[in-house]
What we know:
Distance between the termini: 26 Å
CATH superfamily: Metal-dependent hydrolases
Structural class: alpha/beta
Amino acid sequence: MDDYRIDCLQYANWSEKIFREMRTGGLDAVHVTIAYHETFRETVLNIEQWNRWFEQFPDLVFQGFTGADVRLARETGRTAIFFGFQNPSPIEDDIGLVQILHQLGARFMQLTYNNQSLLATGCYEDYDAGLTRMGREVVTEMNRVGMVVDMSHSGEKSTLDAIEHSSRPIAITHANPHSWHAALRNKSETVMRALGETNGMLGFSIYPHHLKDGPDCTLDSFCHMIADAADVMGVDHIGIGTDLCQDQPDSIVEWMRVGRWTKGIDYGEGSASNAGFPPMPSWYAGNVDFVNITKGLRGIGMSEEDTNKIMGGNWLRFYDDNFGPAS
């Protein structure tokens, strides 16, 4: 298997510097968050900004729509950018916007971001009611057009409901096993097994709140966690979704967690004394360090073939199968 490099979740403070670091790190594709709590119109404004970047830096990045664009990126020495939402707010309460946003390039949409949404329950709620009536309808529509259901910030029952209801594989683009680190966002072995059995994908996150020992997490620990997850899910169903938030000011954490739903501050899995972005582990400061994960996996005895699957091959197959209309 070719050694494609795909990061299936970032929310960096985008700039020419970061685009050049993607190239230095050899990233063939990156799934970027273009909405947290934005309305449809606000999301379109974010797409406008991305169009300007594509126009300004055509030798570095371009918009991706299918797996073929990952191959084109490799052939032309660029990075394909795929759009996704961390909340269903861009579709507002209109199921017809699923197709419109897919036509504009959206390829992933989380059904929740921590809280209860119109579609499902977030992982911070006390009670998880599972998929709502609208949630089931939206999942069916996402399946039809080729927008991937992402349950990274969702509760357990909602996630299992989505796996069961979806006629196509779903993804958890950025999370880790709960047994390794008991963050609310990390996933149980039950979810991991269900995901693997339905050809879904789990992307491992390097966001420190998701890591055992936080910023002090070692590369060896992270890579052994990946190997253990492969034993649970199968090596064909795992990849990387770093959740990299490079160069973002701490004020962005407030938008991510709070949006417009509260007047207070939601500290999430941080604390009032550490409400900003935590330091990254020493072995992963950004895209230039993507190769360190490859080295770490090989260092713990992972085969070259399996390492290549995890670093991008599995995501590429998933993109090929799930970014177009249902057959």
